[in-house]
Design a protein that fits this description.
Length: 725
């Protein structure tokens, strides 16, 4: 197959909807293959696919935002139906549509490629992208009728003879609709008629497809049966079958609707309420799930399956209400094949409202202490794909397909910010047109890019020295996506499978906005703000950035940058291992540079703020003196590491004889500290040094502080020995 080319950029010609629609490269194709030639070439590819290994994953066509165009918001009944012969290359044909019969089996690649014919006998090739495997549109069978709204017609590359290969490209899944065989919109020449006409025949065909586990075809046949059924008494049984099939496919909205439509008023309605309850559970709507399962229990109080689902639902509601989780047990349940956890989301400590910073933000509705659970959220969408090269495409594909299958998710997901689009977003996004939600794949790719999180299997595993670098999935947590960024935030996030855990890193007052780091911060303010500008389009206005960019002198900023470069050059960006012996001359050189670097931090600017450019060198000095077992200097520089992360150090803490409470650094008021795994390591080195000097009480206090810090990092209380594995 030829490679699908991206849509070319449009000119300034507005279409019927007031959007850019037609580039100046439009033209009608001069030479096109005949119907026989198209079918013959297509059959070769279909046969090759039939001979290839089964169950190979289908590739994903990820949108190029530079070539974005909006989805159609019209019904197939609102557009002017045109013949295929009227199509112009590189045009989106705003206000027009096609009614087509599929006259070939599909070739399944990134899209489902088929040959189609209109009522006049014109033929074309069409590629339908971004359909879920649960939909028959993911590979439209031969003989089906489809409608294409405002079709994009483009060049798909070159044929073997050098001629241009033309194709109708359907990027937006809502731009194509499957037309029922009984629909009067079908032109008479295409009404060759299905072999099955009676509702009972369609029902039997659906049952056969179900037994063969061809669930999309089963849904299609049950739907045809409902359209054909003249006897209303025949419909409830079909609704029941379609509801169960939709439940298997994860189409929970449809399963709920069908199950409720199947009710007859008899005691057997327990089945309808049971299916509706399971569908709501699949949507994480546990309140409605409880309501329907309660009704099922009233009608059939002895059914074990209903009792089991009801108890599961009560457990999720308890988690939503209390935030009571057994995180240790959750961690132990994780495996590479089991990352989607059966848990409710606890968000009652927070609320979403307008932020004075920009857009929406997340705010505390009660006072929160350091270490307290701010919220715990199960992912709205997170594929089990930890290969870095595939994770983004997997999340994009899952998002499109889940929104298509469950339109009730559209409201929460589509309200997220997708970045600056080249056209104005349509308020009809997410609303049902022709039975499916309007979905703009370029908007979805934008909001995925701006709102997704990179996720290890667990943050705890990620802190271990043996952690496999780079293996992270991508996920979307809608509640957490409302958090704004700060370089020195008041919360820290961690992950257990598809569960995001947020804990307070300092005192947060009721009504205060909650912040997180979007990415690990860079030491130099101009570099890190360049990252924010490129990635999200903003410059950070947190306390640290304002201090460094507005209050610190340019001369000192440049001096810090120069001294940091000298330190990094000497150390080659490496931290000494436990038994590494560093030459004294190297240590003296680094120590001298670090003193100069510390002097370049104005006390009036950095009084209660982190000093990020000092962290790397301070950490290195701890490791260097550890190799020499110089415990007093280990203490001195470990304390400096903590201070450089922004923690308040009591006077004299650098002395080995000072008795103080290291855990107290997490509870200091008005200090803007930055919490990372390096703080935990510094506290462990502090404990090691105190032990080396025989100061057991201070060693125990340092371990207690390290355990608290590790709880913040990992998300739950766990053993510090995990850091050694």
């Amino acid at each position: 197959m030829a490679v699908v080319l991206p849509s070319p950029p449009a000119t300034t010609s507005p279409g019927l909807d007031g959007v850019i629609t037609k580039p100046d490269t439009t033209r009608t194709p001069r030479v096109k293959p005949t119907k026989e030639e198209l079918l013959k070439t297509h059959a070769v590819y279909v046969q090759k696919q039939a001979n290839s290994p089964e169950n190979a994953p289908r590739p994903v066509k990820q949108p190029n935002l530079a070539h974005a165009y909006p989805a159609s918001t019209k019904s197939i009944r609102e557009v002017k139906i045109i013949p295929l012969s009227d199509l112009e290359v590189n045009s989106h044909h705003r206000g027009s549509g096609l009614i087509l019969k599929v006259i070939s089996p599909p070739f399944l690649g990134a899209g489902a490629v088929s040959i189609v014919e209109d009522e006049f006998g014109n033929v074309e090739k069409i590629s339908i992208y971004n359909q879920n495997d649960s939909s028959i549109l993911s590979g439209v069978p031969e003989g089906c009728i489809i409608g294409v709204k405002e079709p994009y017609y483009t060049i798909n590359g070159k044929n073997a003879d050098g001629s241009e290969d033309y194709m109708i490209c359907v990027d937006h899944p809502s731009d194509v609709t499957l037309i029922r065989f009984t629909d009067p919109i079908i032109p008479e020449p295409l009404r060759l008629g299905p072999l099955l006409k009676a509702a009972e025949d369609w029902k039997k065909a659906g049952d056969t497809a179900f037994l063969e586990k061809d669930f999309p075809t089963a849904v299609f046949c049950y739907t045809e049966a409902l359209d054909c059924a003249e006897d209303e008494g025949f419909k409830p049984s079909i609704y029941t079958k379609r509801a169960g099939t939709n439940l298997i496919l994860g189409r929970y909205d449809a399963a709920k609707e069908d199950s409720l439509a199947s009710r007859t008023g008899a005691s057997t309605d327990w089945k309808a309420y049971y299916t509706a309850g399971r569908a709501c559970y699949g949507l994480c709507n546990y309140s409605d799930s409880k309501e329907y399962l309660s009704k099922a229990l009233e009608l059939n109080p002895t059914k074990p399956a209903i009792k089991k689902e009801y108890e599961r639902c009560l457990a999720r509601l308890h988690e939503e209400e209390t935030g009571d989780y057994d995180f240790e047990a959750i961690y132990k349940s994780l495996s590479p094949k089991s990352v989607h956890l059966d848990l409710g989301s606890f968000t009652r400590n927070t609320e979403v409202k307008a932020s004075p910073l920009h857009g929406r933000g997340l705010f505390a509705i009660k006072d929160l202490a350091p270490g307290e659970l701010v919220f715990a959220e199960k992912a709205t969408l997170m594929p089990n794909q930890y290969e870095p090269m595939r994770a983004s495409a997997a999340l994009y594909a899952l998002t499109v397909r889940q929104l298509l299958d469950n339109p009730s998710l559209c409201k929460s997901v589509l309200q997220l910010y997708p970045g600056q689009m080249s056209y104005e977003r349509n308020p009809l996004e997410g609303t049902l047109v022709d039975g499916v939600p309007v979905l703009d794949v370029f908007v979805i790719e934008g909001l995925r890019n701006k709102n997704c999180f990179s996720v290890p299997l667990s943050t705890l595993e990620d802190t271990r020295p043996t952690a496999q670098e780079g293996r992270q999935a991508k996920g979307l947590w809608v509640h957490a996506s409302n958090l704004n960024h700060a370089c020195v935030p008041n919360t820290l996030r961690s992950f257990l499978g598809d569960m995001l855990i947020s804990r307070a890193t300092r005192h947060i007052k009721a009504g205060e906005e909650i912040f997180q780091q979007y990415v690990p911060v860079k030491s130099l303010p101009d570099i890190r703000n360049g990252v924010y500008k490129d990635g999200w389009g903003f410059e950070c206005s947190c306390t640290l950035c304002v201090a460094e960019l507005k209050q610190s002198s340019e001369a000192n900023r440049e001096r810090r940058k120069d001294l940091l470069a000298q330190v990094e050059k000497i150390l080659n960006k490496k931290t000494p291992r436990a038994k590494t012996i560093i030459p004294d001359a190297t240590i003296r050189s680094v120590d001298k540079l670090m003193k100069q670097l510390e002097e370049a931090h104005e006390p009036e600017v950095y009084g209660r703020l982190p000093r990020l450019t000092l962290i790397y060198g301070s950490n290195w000095l701890v490791g260097a003196y550890r190799g020499k077992k110089n415990y007093s200097k280990m203490i001195r520089h470990a304390v400096k590491v903590l201070r450089n992360f922004g923690f308040e150090m009591p006077q004299g803490a650098e002395s080995q004889d000072k008795v103080w409470n290291p855990k107290g650094i997490f509870f200091a008021e008005e200090w803007h500290s930055l919490m990372t795994i390096h703080v935990v390591i510094a506290l462990r080195r502090l404990a090691e040094a105190y032990n080396g000097l025989g100061k057991k009480e201070m060693a125990e206090r340092s371990v207690e502080a390290a355990e608290f810090g590790y709880m913040l990092v990992a998300g739950f209380k766990t053993n510090l020995s995990n850091l050694d594995r």
